[in-house]
Design brief:
Elements lengths: L1 E12 L2 E12 L3 E5 L6 H8 L7 E6 L2 E2 L2 H4 L2 E4 L11 H11 L4 H14 L15 H13 L5 E5 L7 H16 L3 E5 L3 H7 L2 E6 L2 E7 H7 L4 E7 L10 E9 L2 E8 L5 H10 L3 E7 L4 H11 L2
Parallel strand pairs: 3-8, 3-9, 6-7, 7-8
Antiparallel strand pairs: 1-2, 1-4, 4-5, 9-10, 11-13, 11-14, 12-13
Helix pairs in contact: 3-4, 3-5
Length: about 300
């Protein structure tokens, strides 16, 4: 079931087309990666989902009906452009933002205290926002994004400003929120995070949707029939009609080779040919491209 359906959405600002006929579905209870280079149209799409910007054409459905202001109250949005009132105290700021999402003062205080304790930042409650580092302010904004338990969270570069320890803390919380049934739209340039967290992705480039689907499905789709072979014995040679040896590194008698499998052959036949050549095979595995390589290929080559 899809929590968000984007149907033929286009948007222009003057002569600049930010989105062109974009249609995609965001499944409920999943982490969905929204990817693209700077200026591709991701932020415009996020603002349309949040009803900050109205589409030029097309429609956004929330749980099967046109999204409304009431639905936006169920969304937690962490924008890339961070914005806290610097002169306010941290606790006062968090209470204000939680109440904007419909929480009572009592309920908000109770939930916020839980989050402050979880992140080990109880002492920040009475500090002024201007006293916080970038990473500290980012923690506060993450808390205010999720404290009202939204059914949909939109996180735009949520790891920006964090050291590796705190970035891992946020990753764990995102996964926990997903396990509790929340849907997450994750907009990031960090392809490692995409592989670790996302179930599905959509890539937008030059205002158009380039590809959408499951992360594993896309990685296999853009594979190039290469395998890594680790073995001992005499160097393997090309096997006509089955594979070519692209590289072979010998480390004290232990070889690591990359084989290009003929598209008309199978990996099983290639492996049998290798074993029949008399070498001892330690491992034989498909080399699946990383999302970073696929991102670069799709953006630069347009394929």
């Amino acid at each position: 079931m899809s929590i968000i359906q984007i149907q033929h959405v286009s948007k222009s600002f003057g002569e600049k087309e930010a989105l062109h006929d974009v249609s995609l579905e965001i499944p409920e209870g999943k982490i969905f990666g929204l990817l693209g280079p700077n200026g591709a149209g991701k932020t415009t799409l996020i603002r349309i989902i949040n009803r900050i910007t109205i589409p030029g054409s097309g429609v956004v459905l929330f749980n099967g009906r046109p999204i409304s202001d009431e639905d936006v109250a169920k969304i937690g949005y962490l924008p890339e452009e961070r914005g806290l009132y610097r002169k306010m105290k941290v606790g006062e700021q968090c209470l204000y933002l939680a109440q904007l999402k419909g929480m009572s003062s009592r309920e908000a205080t109770k939930e916020l205290k839980k989050w402050f304790h979880k992140f080990g930042i109880e002492d920040w409650w009475y500090k002024k926002v201007e006293e916080l580092s970038k990473g500290m302010a980012q923690k506060i904004q993450f808390i205010t994004t999720v404290v009202h338990k939204p059914s949909l969270m939109i996180l735009d570069e949520p790891f920006s400003g964090f050291d590796p320890v705190n970035a891992e803390l946020i990753r764990e919380e995102i996964l926990r929120l997903k396990e509790e049934g929340a849907t997450v739209i994750l907009s990031t340039h960090n392809m490692e995070s995409v592989e670790e967290l996302c179930d599905e992705i959509a890539l937008i480039n030059k205002a158009c949707l380039v590809i959408t689907g499951g992360v594993d499905e896309i990685r296999h789709k853009y594979g190039n029939n290469n395998v890594e072979l680790v073995y001992t014995g005499s160097p393997v040679a090309d096997a006509e009609g089955l594979y070519r040896v692209l590289s072979d590194t010998d480390n004290a008698g232990r070889h690591t080779a990359v084989l290009s499998i003929n598209p008309e052959a199978s990996s099983n036949l290639a492996l049998k040919a290798v074993m029949d050549s008399g070498v001892a095979v330690n491992s034989f595995k498909e080399l699946i491209p990383r999302m970073n390589d696929i991102f670069i290929k799709l953006v630069t080559e347009g394929v």
